[in-house]
Amino acid sequence: MLIVMEHSATQGQVDAVLETIRGLGLTPQPIPGENRVAIGVLGNQGYVDEAPFRDLPGIQELIHVTKPYKLVSRDFHPEDTVVQVGGVRVGWGEKPVVIAGPCAVESREQVLAAARAVKAAGAHLLRGGAFKPRTGPHAFQGLGYEGLEYLAEAGRAAALPIVTEVMRIDQLERVASVADCLQVGARNMQNFDLLKEVGRVGKPVLLKRGMSATLEEFLAAAEYILLEGNSQVILCERGIRTFERALRNTLDLGVVPYLKGATHLPVIVDPSHALGRRDLVLPMAKAALVVGAAGVMVEVHPDPGRALCDGPQSLDPKGFERLMAELRALAPV
Amino acid sequence: MLIVMEHSATQGQVDAVLETIRGLGLTPQPIPGENRVAIGVLGNQGYVDEAPFRDLPGIQELIHVTKPYKLVSRDFHPEDTVVQVGGVRVGWGEKPVVIAGPCAVESREQVLAAARAVKAAGAHLLRGGAFKPRTGPHAFQGLGYEGLEYLAEAGRAAALPIVTEVMRIDQLERVASVADCLQVGARNMQNFDLLKEVGRVGKPVLLKRGMSATLEEFLAAAEYILLEGNSQVILCERGIRTFERALRNTLDLGVVPYLKGATHLPVIVDPSHALGRRDLVLPMAKAALVVGAAGVMVEVHPDPGRALCDGPQSLDPKGFERLMAELRALAPV
Amino acid sequence: MLIVMEHSATQGQVDAVLETIRGLGLTPQPIPGENRVAIGVLGNQGYVDEAPFRDLPGIQELIHVTKPYKLVSRDFHPEDTVVQVGGVRVGWGEKPVVIAGPCAVESREQVLAAARAVKAAGAHLLRGGAFKPRTGPHAFQGLGYEGLEYLAEAGRAAALPIVTEVMRIDQLERVASVADCLQVGARNMQNFDLLKEVGRVGKPVLLKRGMSATLEEFLAAAEYILLEGNSQVILCERGIRTFERALRNTLDLGVVPYLKGATHLPVIVDPSHALGRRDLVLPMAKAALVVGAAGVMVEVHPDPGRALCDGPQSLDPKGFERLMAELRALAPV
Amino acid sequence: MLIVMEHSATQGQVDAVLETIRGLGLTPQPIPGENRVAIGVLGNQGYVDEAPFRDLPGIQELIHVTKPYKLVSRDFHPEDTVVQVGGVRVGWGEKPVVIAGPCAVESREQVLAAARAVKAAGAHLLRGGAFKPRTGPHAFQGLGYEGLEYLAEAGRAAALPIVTEVMRIDQLERVASVADCLQVGARNMQNFDLLKEVGRVGKPVLLKRGMSATLEEFLAAAEYILLEGNSQVILCERGIRTFERALRNTLDLGVVPYLKGATHLPVIVDPSHALGRRDLVLPMAKAALVVGAAGVMVEVHPDPGRALCDGPQSLDPKGFERLMAELRALAPV
After folding, report:
1. B253 interfaces chain C, CB cutoff of 8 Å
2. Rounded distance between C-alpha atoms, residue D273 and residue D299, angstroms
3. Which residue of B103, C68, C153, D227 could cross-link B310, Cys pair, CB 3.0 to 4.6 Å?
4. Confidence band (pLDDT; 50, 70, 90) for A35?
5. What is the complex's ipTM, to 2 decimals?
6. Which residue of B has its CA nearest to C271?
7. B43: which chain D residues are within 8 Å (Cβ-Cβ)?
8. Strand, coil or helix: what is A310?
9. Is C281 part of the contact surface with chain B (CB cutoff 8 Å)?
């Protein structure tokens, strides 16, 4: 930590800070400048707590050099983590994966049709929501456990491992008994108890970035899962909330190469939720792979016009076939 | 709903939209313009689902006129709701309430001292966190049920009803057995299952606005609670996330008079979390009352310099006394 | 400046940084930590240029301790600056000023009527736009110099000093010959050439915060004016752009007490542009004074329903009278 | 325009709105709903002014269906515009262009070296700033006209047309006499007088998106230029300001396919300014072309470590060669 003193700080105020640092068993390192004094804090093994410094007069700013996470950081774990979902490998250095399927499971027929279609076109994993977080309570909330059974059946029928969202802790056991990967949605990225419990289950986790989560918060959320002993975590960029509302969200593709440097956990991209418009999914999915994402997750519905949830952003089977063809064409680059 | 057709939409495309509307048992009302046609949708009792229109060609935009909430709206419930916490009344037309106490319960002594201090200065409700949501798992997570007991004891000792945060569903029963008001934090504003279960408990609820929640989303989140039969909900503005990071968050005081027109539920303001700096709490708390808030919630710690959580924004007992004096001086205005 | 080295930086990389610092005539101060090394840079008189460090391997981050401005900072100029507009004093410790008048000058009659009305109600300065920045070129762009003459006449008639916006450098001389204070609008806050030239004119300047300007950028923009020898600058918070679009902008009142600590220049608040709704102007204007603003600027139109620009946010004369009465009632607090 | 009445609006209030619409020579079209009445406004040729409706009681919302621009819209001009800079064609259907060169012209040698390097690697246009907008006045502001001469010489030497920024109106004539394309920077996107004057010059214009400009504002800014009779405008996405500050800006690549549908003007992408980090420029430049951008603009400096401006985001000649090679490899996709 670096403590920047005010321009007008007195020597007595500086001394009080030095003494406080020593009192914590740490070593102060004053850096006298022309305009103000700064004091480095040495000897800490991790994040230094701000508390003891807060009420000391004369302090202008506390700058943390250590991050609030450690297990997810490449600094301490330089090798890529490969997450195994069913038999499918997801990792920075692996062949990119495509996760596809309907936003919500709406019926047995719908999810079976979707599974067949995405399998035929070459998807690696099947997605589908049985429990749906919706802005208002009057919208369709998902079929629940019934939907989960349909999804599981569709996954078996198409021989695709399945990814599905969990929203509450008491669902975990039952969902984990059939799902190959547990998704934590953007709105639950800082539902810390859910993160802890998901971490204890021991299944691969797909963690979506919160709508206004900084990358530091995103990585710190993943740290909750890893701290429970589970490092099988896939991070997913799905668009952030900005002042621009012409599109549903702003897909923040620059974070993919940034996170590649910062963490060993693989990052995939969900262009469907980010853009909210079918015609933008194809170009943005390609861009995601070009910037190095470990995979993409796209919504596919057998009949998007009748989707109960997020229809305007869902591809139909033909559209998905085309997407797969174009993604394959990217392989050489 | 209003459907805006593209400039280049053909008559056939317009006809297909008209037919679809009629197929839903609704009435289309075409509005031919010079540049493009728009079509009003009449006869709906609530939110019109977009799904049937999504794949129709020639549509430029779907504009919803009906909001995704109804129970929280003043349109359908013009009279102010007064929430009763213990014996304390919270409502737009009521005397403003002051909720005060430590960010986190840290020890029996700390919360007892805080309770005595805030009571002496005139606070109406005692706050204190037993379960703390923290960005990273390495930070202090609260004392849990032990903290809850200390808080309950402090409330009894000072004769103050207590407000405390719940983070997971399986805590609800035990927390509700001692707390007078259940707080749902900003990070859980769209933890929809928690909202539903909190709604079923039947205790007053303090719902904080999510860090990047629009007012529509905020009200729709409250709608989840009201739909379970509980309209004893207090809304709390606590600062939003913007591009500006010099202060912790941007306190959005303009929403107070805005929400006064939009909802019958009372709105209070938490300047401590919003600003993150003790010296800004006092002026912003005063401003909150001046714009009409039904109350304020402020952090008070017997010794902020040793706080385990959010110390820099906590007032000490003397600072809180001064705050109360200045708030009282506002009463005539 | 503080240079934070990467966890994996070698001693050779650290040495290269030390040598580079010494090569600039500055003094390096290494701060060895458990996880990484940081290096303080001492001896600089101002902002240290990043350039020489950019390509050195092993550097994780460069943290500036010195700000990109100096003249506007309270560190170097602790006493409040009082800006004198006509005979009216604007400053942190002064009686709050009220600047009022129409958004745009629309006719001789309109601005005369507005001037009389705001004078009668007790305003101190008259505002009115002759040159109007509008999002699209098809909207009313202001009456230009004709409007300026009307405004000047109205100011004389009502004995009120006038404030008006300048948009281009070649307007400066003529506008300055009649205006008592030159306004630089939010969209021009980083029109650096305009800032420089405005600084050279020697008239008081009202500088509005840009729609997405950080406080550091806001102060650095003012620094451009002060560097030309003109410290008669009033800063104006007018709402920032955030994800929330229910209101026109988010009025960021927390910056008022924050800036009071950071700069000697007075800060006023424009609630009319910030909120975009007449009914919110009154409560937010009161809140601005309560948090310590040196004044407020509000739009008043003799007949807001017929305003060519920003009618929905303009008060009518009766509304302004009420505002003045309520602001006066705040004086004791 | 659509006028949405309040739930509680009386018939008299509805009638007043109908009458006002008729008074403007337009045709009202009431759309009675279950919860509220909406009224369509028919017969307008363009944007309907809100002013006459602002003070009418009972109105909840005014929704514009017509946009504040027309000339830039594909609705009224379906064919792609091809901008010709020197002999280089820039357009949606054209071969993507690469604009490269130093952020700022720092010396004759520097820009000559940069020009040679980018030409050798295959760039189509040379960029370089003679006039530099900088956050604070203490930073390097560019060499001015001296820099312009060096840039012109470098362009001639390398046989590359040149693109350079103009910051003030009185620079226009002189800059236009040597530059092939005039750049308007992000901070000046709403400097409307500059836009008008740039439009009158008759040279191709490169207009950068403002840091927090919505797409509607971006297109409306371009409309200012087209309205002066100049449709040779290239739009440039360069990253927007969001809550995330780990990277300099958030590159908003989704706008490229979105704008392709909305406007006939070509859109290019500047990944250097957006990301602010050299290592992210390459992947993001590739992504820009994959999503369909008409070109990219990248910063290249012969010796980025000694750059006076934006060094950390500048490629060196070797890095640029690699970028060109990777962009070429994308051609088949």
Report:
1. yes
2. 8
3. B103
4. low
5. 0.88
6. B254
7. 33-34
8. coil
9. no
Is the Cα dihedral D318, D319, D323, D329 positive or negative?
Answer: positive
Query: Are C280 and C274 in contact, with CB atoms under 8 Å apart?
Result: no
Phi-psi region of D40 (alpha: psi -120 to 50; beta: other; left: phi over 0): beta
How is C42-90 classified by DSSP, letter by letter? E--SSPPPSGGGTT-TTEEEEE--S-S--TTBTTT--SPP-EEETTEEE
Helix axes D317-329, D108-121, angle to 10 degrees: 30
Among D183, D273, D195, smallest CA distance to D234 is for D183
User: Which of D211, D237, D245, D280 best tests the A interface by mutation, with the highest count of A CBs <10 A?
Assistant: D280
**A246/A276 Cα distance (integer angstroms):** 10
Parts of chain B belonging to CATH 3.30.70.1140: 2-63
**Amino acid (1-letter code) at residue C28:** P
Q: Which of A2-16, C19-33, C222-236 has the highest mean pLDDT?
A: C222-236
Show which subunits contact C, needing at least 3 CB pairs below 8 angstroms.
Answer: A, B, D
Q: Tell me which H or E stretch contains B226.
A: helix B215-227
Shortest CA distance to C258 belongs to which of D64, B274, A333, D34? B274
Q: C283 pLDDT band (50/70/90 cuts)?
A: very high
| C-alpha distance from residue A240 to each of A187, A214, D239, D242, D251 (Å) | 12, 9, 14, 9, 12
Helical residues (DSSP H) of chain A, grouped into ranges: 11-23, 108-121, 145-158, 172-178, 192-201, 215-227, 255-262, 271-275, 278-290, 317-329
At D46 the pLDDT is 62
Considering only alpha carbons, which residue of chain A is nearest residue D283?
Answer: A291
For residue B183 the two structure tokens come to 């707080």
What is the Cα–Cα distance from B319 to B164, expressed in whole angstroms?
A: 22
pLDDT, average across residues C322-326: 97
The rounded distance, in Å, linking the Cα atoms of C128 and C148 is 8
Residue B216's pLDDT band, with cuts at 50, 70 and 90, is very high
Contact D1, D63 (CB under 8 A): yes
> What count of Cα atoms within 13 Å lies in the side-chain half-sphere of residue D197?
22
pTM (two decimals): 0.91
Q: Which pLDDT value is given to residue C65?
A: 67
Q: Where along chain B do the CATH 3.20.20.70 domains lie?
A: 83-329
What's the token pair of residue B130?
């037993």
The architecture (CATH level 2) of B83-329 comes to Alpha-Beta Barrel (3.20)
Instruction: Name which of B253, B255, B259, B272 to mutate to probe chain C: the one with the most chain C Cβ atoms within 10 A of its Cβ.
Output: B253
Tell me if C17 sits within 8 A of C5, measured CB to CB.
yes
> What is the pLDDT confidence band of residue B188, given thresholds at 50, 70 and 90?
very high
Residue B45, pLDDT score:
60
pLDDT number for residue D153: 98
D241 contacts in chain C (CB < 8 Å)? 212
SS3 breakdown of chain D: % helix, strand, coil, rounded to 5?
A: 40, 20, 40
Question: In the Cβ-directed half-sphere of C102, how many Cα atoms lie within 13 Å?
Answer: 36
Q: Do C254 and B280 touch (CB under 8 A)?
A: yes
How far is Cα B190 from Cα B184, in angstroms, rounded to an integer?
10
Superfamily name with CATH number, domain B2-63? Phospho-2-dehydro-3-deoxyheptonate aldolase; domain 1 (3.30.70.1140)
Buried b or exposed e, range C286-316, using 16+ CB within 10 angstroms? bbbbbbbbbbbbbbbbbbbbebbbbbbbbbb
Please name the amino acid found at residue A182.
L
Dump pLDDT digits (tens) for B231-288.
999 999 999 999 988 888 999 999 999 999 999 999 999 999 888 888 899 999 999 9
Tokens of B12: 């056939």
User: How many Å apart are CA A103 and CA B65, to the nearest integer?
Assistant: 25
Alpha carbon distance D289, D257 (integer Å)? 11
| B69 residue type, one letter | Y
